[in-house]
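ARCHIVE RECORD
Type: protein–small molecule complex
Small molecule: DGJ
Source of inputs: curated submission
Record status: active
Notes field left blank by submitter.
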Amino acid sequence: MADMIEIDEADGRPRFALHGRDFSYVFAITLEGLAKHIYYGERVADAIGLSGLHRRVSRENTAWHEQYRHSSLNDLPQEYPVAGASDYRHVCLDGETSDGRSLGTLVYRDHTVCAGAPDLDGLPGGAADGAQTLTVAMTDPVTGIVAELLYTVWANHGVLGRAVRFSNHSGTTITLRRALSACLAMPPGRYDALHLHGSWAHEFQQERIRLPTAQLVAESTRGTSSAAHHPFIALLSPDATEEAGEVTALALVYSGNHRHTAERGEYGDVRLSAGINPSGFSWRLEPGETFTAPQALSVRTSDGLGAMSHAWHDFVREKISPPRWRGVSRPSYLNTWEAAYFDVNEQKVVGLAERAASLGLDMLVLDDGWFEGRTHAATSLGVWHADKERFPSGISTLAKSVAAVGVRFGLWVEPEMVSPDSPLLIDHPDWILAVPGRTPSVGRAQLTLDLTNPSVTDYLYRQIADLLACGDVSYVKWDMNRPMTDVGSSWLPAERQRETAHRYTLALYALLDRLTIAFPDVLFEACASGGNRFDLGMLSYCPQGWLSDMVDPIGRAAIVSGASLVYPTDVMAAYIGPSPNHQNGRVTSLSTRMHAGAMLAAQGVSLGAADLDANEGALRTFAADCDERRHRRLGARFDRLLVGDNETIWQQTSADGSFVSLVDLYRLARPNAPYRRARLRGLAPEARYRAVFDGTIHSGAALMGPGLALPHSTMMMDGEGAYMPPGDFSSVLLELERL
Ligand code: DGJ
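STRUCTURE (tokenized, with ligand):
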């Protein structure tokens, strides 16, 4: 650990080299005091000696300072650029003092190194164990702002953490209008940008495009990280594949409005940045106050997208997921949503719990519809008491009845929301996000509570804590079904209105923190109309997340593939839904529906009683498989072997390497398809593996070289390898055991 951060101060101008598991990151303070980026790449021994990588030339007629004629900031790779003094690219910081001076170029003040990760003032971030943090304080002497650039590296991880803590050392108010978390200055060249976009039931769609000589912006202004543009962007060498090529990726540990920008400048240089979206944001920093920007994490590899994902997966499992749940297997479950929607009552829920128990599932989850008056989506959010007619015994007794039939009990809530008809609004009309004089827009017929108001979060804490106090609720699905609009707070003063969205996110984190500390054994699952807030921030409190309401296996395949770029299967939840599917009407077999979620840590079923009975045998096998395989799924390696238009092939290898499974899912069958093989990854070349499906023995080298013959889709089921069920939307799960 000692050599994770190296500092050379020989000539009074510090040079810093940070080393992660397989990368080095180098920057130096220039003669003028600027923080100049030097290198981010494969780990190098003499990183400090790399300082000559950038050449300064006199390119144009604006220079930062008369004294430094070659110092055009427009041409300098910088750690934390600011506009106003010859840098015309997108910058990290903008704002002004109350007497009208804009924030300017930051110069070096001092630095410190300490063990652990920084305290991010209520924001989540990578865990402190095994970490070292370098703090480089930069200042703008004219305005008195100090920006502490926080760099964190973790032993044994390929992830670099960046955050910034601002403090006001002037005598006047400073208003921050843009306070990004990190900038990565990348060498000039051609890059592809890969980002994840989507919408409801269509999250995590991958798009790869050539980075233009312009700015590419992926952002959210919806109050949540959103499915529209995931808080992640990667720049790739144009030849990069899953197995080779340069990749630099940046993701935010944040659940609110974000902006990721990639810019190729006029000299071909590239700047990648991430942070709170400046749109709609500002923050008043009074003298002596501090403000911390969320942590941005980056991964850099020369071994392609697969290696990038493995670095993220290890990090999310070990440094983001709540420690209480690391390595803890997840219960299989029966969820009431697509089984009954709002038509739930005590008797039906206990009946479903009995069926869950007889199938061998571990938990019954009562989704939406259980609280007072909630018979449809447009009503009753806000007061979290069981509906007296449909649940006369109340939640704690119901939870006990469910426990009595042999399964655990889980409950859905959507605490951040309120329906316009809620009695809560009669007492507290000012508890919603709204702009005075405007009627707030509704989304799914609901309004958003103003979490910046501590009375609101105290109320929500009490409501949820009362439900959990009985001790028989072992899981909570925390939903959030509308993006924000009318982002104004009657709690905050006029001059702080643009702090509302960020303060909301901070308050949400504080509420989740409080609840998860008070109820450490309750498993929280993050959900926001599916995957609208599936991000590193929420996953810091919730050990798992609901990826999408798209449970049709074909629709789901692309979502799992996209999400797996960043997230390990340990944090993903899935269930087998009805067929025809309720989102797109597609008819699929139970086994294809099962295979689409087969590699995820949290698996369940959401089927009505008739469907459960009709598929009893297969669901029993499903529940038994969940039981038997759950330990192999934790910490497993995940590889995208093929993400094609007609076919998806995933490989999962247990952490100890002893089990390997492949899921092959395709859309349309075709006769006489070419004979195909899947080349497996990450096996021990000299080890031998037995294919469970046909008993054949293969060496790791053969499986990774020539590959494993894939089954054909054929109407003739008796040929060699003809074990892919015929028809469209078919799939197969192939397992191998290491001998
Ligand atoms: C949206 C979620 O994604 C669904 O799974 C379900 O919980 C509904 N909300 C309930 O309203």
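CURATOR ANNOTATION: The longest strand covers residues 290-301.
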